[in-house]
Amino acid sequence: MKPGDRIKVFAPATVANVACGYDILGFAIDFPGDELIMELTEKKGVEIVDIVGDGGVLPRNPLTNSASVAIMDYLNYIHADFGCKIWIKKMMPSGSGLGSSAASAVAGVYAVNMLCNEKLTKHEMLPFLLNSEKVACGSAIADNVAASLFGGFILVRSYEPLDVINIPVPEDLWCAVINPQVIVLTREAREILPKEISITKSVRQGANVGGLIVGLLRGDYDLIGRSLIDYIAEPYRSKLIPGFYDMKEAAIHAGALGSSISGSGPSVFALCKGEETARKAGNAMKAVMDKMGIEANVYVSKVNPTGPKALPFMEE
Amino acid sequence: MKPGDRIKVFAPATVANVACGYDILGFAIDFPGDELIMELTEKKGVEIVDIVGDGGVLPRNPLTNSASVAIMDYLNYIHADFGCKIWIKKMMPSGSGLGSSAASAVAGVYAVNMLCNEKLTKHEMLPFLLNSEKVACGSAIADNVAASLFGGFILVRSYEPLDVINIPVPEDLWCAVINPQVIVLTREAREILPKEISITKSVRQGANVGGLIVGLLRGDYDLIGRSLIDYIAEPYRSKLIPGFYDMKEAAIHAGALGSSISGSGPSVFALCKGEETARKAGNAMKAVMDKMGIEANVYVSKVNPTGPKALPFMEE
Predict the structure, then answer these.
(1) Are A211 and B155 inside 8 Å of each other by CB?
(2) Same domain, yes or no, for B45 and B186?
(3) What is the pLDDT of residue B315?
(4) pLDDT given for residue A302 in this prediction
(5) What is the complex's ipTM, to 2 decimals?
(6) Residue at which a domain ends, from B116, B133, B168
(7) What's the rounded Cα separation, in Å, for the pair B94 and B92?
């Protein structure tokens, strides 16, 4: 590693919570995601040269941007005597429930780690990403960053100590995500939840976590679908998303295995077996938004199995 | 199948709840368990000829005994024009939290199904067993009967509709169970639980269900151990079992992966990697009871992978 070395990387967007997995499950999708270019510099610290695609809303200050915060933690950890410049290309909306800040941060640490000859493992990089989530979102939640970093599904079993388990996904698992142009504040989405839940519902929630994980590990798509039930967040947060239950019903009617809120919303995901069904589910959800006169973007892609990756500098 | 046909079977005892899996997880152990001899008769109905090993406490009335109730449901379901006589040999205590009524019922339906050329699948027999649990225990809980019937671990994902998933166990998973001679009433053990739980604890409980299932499917013993944490039942039910935390600590100190209450108690289990560790954990728990002057039986066996089995008539 020497000044001038550079790399371009992509890190995937993520769907957190995944119905039954409120606050503990997440998965990565092939598209959208963020691109980041990094160039090592003699000067220490992280310089954000440019951010495009965010409409100017993301912080340019390296102390508050999720990517630079994570990179800085990495550089400090390895006692680097160099720094870097970064260019970020946002290819997804912020505040959409798709792990926007997480994807930028993961792209950042993945890039610096590649330029440092993969000095650290993914598990070793997680703490930097938790810290960046705390700076960007106010709480050090692991589901988005871990899913974007590892790819596939991840289970956050414990925070103290941090215990993140990655779970491979069956080959033909696709996802349709719709991002309606409505605003849901993460804080409001948290405050709308009750503080307690009945033991009965808690037990059923855990049973579905178990069912979903068995389904993923066995490639049992029906079981995956049967397990996508949420007793904790969806009954409350759905009120913040106009047309939520109509979209969910439309997706399932189109063949989706199941559907729920992505992160704290307003995006809604539908897991499907195969690309064709995912496209139908995406179109069905879009038709509901069209009928309500709400603008919405639809993304259809495979569940991403591997996390971030290096990209060629094709523009050169 | 004709009158006079007979069979002798064994059905395993079971550990339900399994720490994080309150009301949804269970597993079978190789020993103890119940033996049952069945002989088909021209006369319809089920006759209980004898029960030994129960100290005379179990019902001899075919309408209230868990085994005969389940067998009768089976015979009615297949429109049998014959009946049977049964002899039950209890090899485990009732009211111990080891699924005593479930083991007898499973032995009964397994026996009649074998004599009927395996007419029904295990999944088809489950409803009869749920009904027998309702008659014997007052509620149609599936964890003990399903674990005894399928062997290995089972997950009760849903009751409506009934969705029981069996999960194979790693080869070297052993269990020590201690049954202290104290009385815990199932009703009292239910009533001591709160009706609600904080979302935070509910989330962590579900995360551990996920961790345990990944651990079982991957043969990751450490992960199994890390996941054996219970926020729902153990903090309350432990008060009904003298010396519970001392036993748990002793088992873990002896090398157990984890330890908690079996069913609604008073039995306590410790899951272990390998027979030697399981024996040490069993002895360590027994030493705690000895010191407290409480009589207790210890059972050490493999997690049973297959459920009930036919036995030879060796006494002849």
Answers:
(1) yes
(2) no
(3) 57
(4) 96
(5) 0.95
(6) B168
(7) 7
Residue A43: Cβ within 10 Å count: 12
The C-alpha angle with vertex B250 and arms to B248 and B254, in degrees rounded to 5, equals 115
Q: Per-residue pLDDT for A233 more than 70?
A: yes
Size of interface A-B (CB pairs under 8 A): 126
Residue with the two structure tokens 């729920």: A260
Q: CB of A26 within 8 Å of any CB in chain B?
A: no
- Identify whether residues A226 and A79 lie together within a single domain: no
The answer on A214 and A161 residing in a single domain is: no
Q: Does A195 touch chain B (CB under 8 A)?
A: yes
* C-alpha atoms less than 13 angstroms from C-alpha of B283 in its C-beta half-sphere: 8
> Is B64 annotated in the active site?
no
Would B309 be classed as within a structural domain? no
Distance of CA A87 to the CA centre of its chain: 20
Ramachandran quadrant class, B308 (left: phi over 0; alpha: psi -120 to 50; beta: rest): beta
pLDDT score of A136 more than 90: no
Contact B207 A158 (CB under 8 A): yes
Indicate if the pLDDT at residue A22 is higher than 70. yes
- Ranges of H-type helices in B119-192: 122-137, 143-150, 186-191
A275 is catalytic: no
> Which domain does A252 fall in, by range?
173-302
Give the CA distances from residue B53 to residues A248, B46, B50, B167, in Å, rounded to whole numbers and listed in that order: 56, 20, 10, 32
The pLDDT assigned to A315 comes to 57
pLDDT digits (tens, 9 = 90+) for B115-166: 999 999 999 999 999 999 999 888 889 999 999 999 999 999 999 999 999 9
Residue B108 located in a structural domain:
yes
- Please state, in angstroms and rounded to a whole number, the distance separating the CA atoms of residues B99 and B143: 9
Which tens digits make up the pLDDT trace of A178-198?
Answer: 999 998 887 888 899 999 999
Closest by Cβ to A207, choosing from B155, B202, B217: B155
Whether residue A11 is found in the same domain as residue A158: yes
Query: Stretch A293-311: mean pLDDT, rounded?
Result: 97
Low-confidence ranges of chain B (pLDDT < 50): 316
Average pLDDT, chain A: 95
The reply to whether A14 and A129 lie within a common domain is yes
**Among A214, A176, A155, A150, which residue's Cα sits nearest to residue A22?**
A155
Four-residue CA torsion sign, B97, B98, B100, B102: positive
3-class DSSP state of A189: helix
